[in-house]
Amino acid sequence: xxxxxxxxxxxxxxxxxxxxxxxxxxxxxxxxxxxxxxxxxxxxxxxxxxxxxxxxxxxxxxxxxxxxxxxxxxxxxxxxxxxxxxxxxxxxxxxxxxxxxxxxxxxxxxxxxxxxxxxxxxxxxxxxxxxxxxxxxxxxxxxxxxx
Length: 147
Known about the structure:
globular, 8-stranded antiparallel barrel
């Protein structure tokens, strides 16, 4: 295989890993929303922004910025739509999170562009979310703030 084809293939794999991790980050953010108590439910719905890092299964750790919108679907479930960006890519993903405790949420995400699925764990503390994402493409950690 020529070096150009190998380099292109490696670049595509890295971009897929980074995008998958960004997608995971978005889903994690959504999970924080559903983990809020009923008293926190309305403050969680809406727009959250923040940053963190993605750790691709193949490639180097990369900084990521995300904007996540949570839409309440029921008393304990939220739909999540996220747009994330790294130095190498922009990523859009969707997900759903469910309240698992007073300040914990859990859910899943999907990125159709890269066919990446993953799990999200969220811990909510006031207007701040700590998000952890995991998929076959890698992992990520984010801190989001309510805007």
